[in-house]
């Protein structure tokens, strides 16, 4: 059995319409201004800010599913509350992709980096049996500014969102 | 990032080449007006003249009716289509003008609220493209400068359909809409001057003044995101061959 991680921010990714989730070159907030790849910004607000997308469960998926947010910040104090809501749809001409409601919502509270721009991982365990090979998973990743635990007074900078799982 | 334009400081982006010169064409951008009473040229092509203007433009006309105007002027005379709903200040909105012919133009707010106009107007002599100010002058200076942010500006040399306009307003990148007809695309990330044109036509926009950088519009990444390795498995390849694994990138299999 091996553990795999796949990036899940694919072509279907789109921010919510709040104006507080958006993509920008990293050198806007970084200081070295060398690696100006795009990152996704979740501003510090008192609302839930979402990034929507979807992915397909890999052929070799067996279980032990986790959702990993790779992120950082320029602030070094406070916490961020991440919330991952999803719904999986499977089959071939058996289940509608036009679903209402959430299959599962999981959260994680992660502390700001000890120094600005350090890499962080926030991990959330998904119910493995909710997922099956070839399922189409539609999700929304939130920074939950409504939660009392979200105390970091700065933007959260997301580099990657990973689906982690084990094979046979 | 977007650019935050201060209308009191004569700030705008300009390139001395026209992305389009005639119909059909489509102009679109996201904007965040911070002054409900300011009349703003958002994105335009024009002849740069000081009178008897010729231009195609999309405008956020605050203080008059708060509609999006899709304006065509020829020798200073013309008309505009107006959206059927008003925009909200201090929030991101999407504006689009579809100029199908000299007698068919439409203005959209947020992918809908379509208003049309059929007055015969045929601008000529278009030579420049501008973001955040009129593409013509009064007393030698552009006017109706933007007060607020602009991002994700794009121009096509075709008339986009209503569905395509709606897709843009839902956050789809202009690079994903009629790519072959895209004549200019300026995300306006605010990383320097000139602001690059990513359409392939290299109409990079020079900054006039120093518009500040500000938060970006809610638009999906321009180039898609890499899904990476999707697991060790055997999948059917196009043409019936099988490969020991596939790599998905930018929406395709490689």
Question: Mind explaining what this structure looks like?
Answer:
The complex is a heterodimer of chains A (168) and B (254). Chain A is mainly beta. Chain A has a single domain (3-166), classed as Galactose-binding domain-like (Jelly Rolls, Sandwich). Chain A has strands at 3-7, 14-15, 21-25, 38-42, 48-56, 63-72, 79-89, 104-111, 120-125, 136-144, 156-166. In chain A, strands 1, 3, 4, 6, 9 and 11 form a six-stranded antiparallel β-sheet that branches. A five-stranded antiparallel β-sheet of chain A has the order 2-5-10-7-8, with no helix packed on it. With 254 residues, chain B is mostly beta strands. Chain B has one helix spanning 162-169, and strands spanning 2-5, 12-15, 25-33, 39-46, 55-61, 67-74, 77-82, 93-101, 104-109, 112-117, 128-131, 148-156, 182-186, 206-208, 212-214, 226-229, 235-236, 242-243, 247-249, 252-253. Classes of the chains: A mainly beta (168), B mainly beta (254).
Q: Which terms summarize this structure?
A:
heterodimer; A: 168 residues; mainly beta; Jelly Rolls; five-stranded antiparallel β-sheet; 11 strands; 48% strand; globular; B: 254 residues; 20 strands; 41% strand
Number of strands of chain A: 11
Q: What best-fitting shape of chain A do the alpha-carbon axes yield?
A: globular
| Helix/strand order of chain A, N-terminal first | EEEEEEEEEEE
**Strand residues, percent of chain B:** 35-45%
Layout: helices, strands, pairs:
The complex is a heterodimer of chains A (168) and B (254).
Chain A: E1 3-7, E2 14-15, E3 21-25, E4 38-42, E5 48-56, E6 63-72, E7 79-89, E8 104-111, E9 120-125, E10 136-144, E11 156-166
Antiparallel strand pairs in A: 1-11, 2-5, 3-4, 4-11, 5-10, 6-9, 6-11, 7-8, 7-10
Chain B: E1 2-5, E2 12-15, E3 25-33, E4 39-46, E5 55-61, E6 67-74, E7 77-82, E8 93-101, E9 104-109, E10 112-117, E11 128-131, E12 148-156, H1 162-169, E13 182-186, E14 206-208, E15 212-214, E16 226-229, E17 235-236, E18 242-243, E19 247-249, E20 252-253
Antiparallel strand pairs in B: 1-12, 1-15, 2-11, 2-14, 3-8, 3-12, 4-5, 4-11, 5-6, 6-7, 8-9, 9-10, 12-13, 16-19, 17-18, 19-20
């Amino acid at each position: 059995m091996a553990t795999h991680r796949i990036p899940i921010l694919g072509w279907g990714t789109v921010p919510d319409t709040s104006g507080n989730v958006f993509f920008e070159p990293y050198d806007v907030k970084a200081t070295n201004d060398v690696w100006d790849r795009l990152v996704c910004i979740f501003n510090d607000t008192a609302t839930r800010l979402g990034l929507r997308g979807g992915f397909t469960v890999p052929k070799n998926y067996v279980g032990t599913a986790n959702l990993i947010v790779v992120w950082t910040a320029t602030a070094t104090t406070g916490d961020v509350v991440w919330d991952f809501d999803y719904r999986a749809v499977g089959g071939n001409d058996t289940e509608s992709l036009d679903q209402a409601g959430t299959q599962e919502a999981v959260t994680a509270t992660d502390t700001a980096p000890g120094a600005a721009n350090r890499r962080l991982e926030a991990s959330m365990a998904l119910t493995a049996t909710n997922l099956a090979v070839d399922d189409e998973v539609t999700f929304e990743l939130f920074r939950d500014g409504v939660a009392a635990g979200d105390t970091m007074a700065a933007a959260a900078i997301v580099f990657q969102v990973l689906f982690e799982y084990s094979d046979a | 990032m977007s650019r935050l334009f201060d209308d009191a400081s004569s700030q705008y982006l300009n390139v001395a080449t026209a992305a389009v010169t005639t119909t059909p064409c489509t102009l679109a951008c996201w904007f965040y007006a911070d002054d409900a009473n300011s009349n703003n040229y958002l994105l335009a092509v024009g002849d740069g003249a000081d009178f008897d203007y010729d231009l195609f433009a999309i405008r956020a006309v605050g203080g008059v009716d708060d509609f999006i105007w899709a304006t065509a002027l020829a020798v200073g005379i013309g008309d505009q289509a107006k959206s059927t709903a008003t925009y909200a200040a201090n929030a991101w909105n999407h504006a689009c003008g579809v100029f199908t012919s000299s007698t068919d133009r439409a203005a959209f707010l947020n992918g809908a609220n379509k208003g049309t106009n059929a007055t015969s107007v045929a601008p000529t002599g278009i030579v420049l493209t501008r973001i955040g100010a009129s593409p013509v002058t009064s007393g030698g200076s552009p006017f109706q400068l933007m007060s607020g942010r602009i991002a994700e500006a794009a121009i096509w040399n075709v008339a986009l359909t209503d569905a395509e306009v709606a897709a843009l307003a839902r956050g789809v990148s202009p690079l994903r809409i009629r790519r072959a007809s895209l004549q200019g695309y300026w995300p306006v990330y605010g990383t320097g001057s000139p602001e690059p044109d990513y359409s392939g036509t290299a109409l990079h926009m020079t900054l006039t003044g120093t518009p500040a950088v500000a938060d970006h519009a809610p638009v999906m990444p321009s180039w898609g995101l890499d899904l990476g390795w999707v697991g060790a498995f055997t999948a059917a390849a196009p043409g019936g061959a099988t490969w020991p694994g596939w790599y998905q990138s930018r929406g395709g299999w490689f």
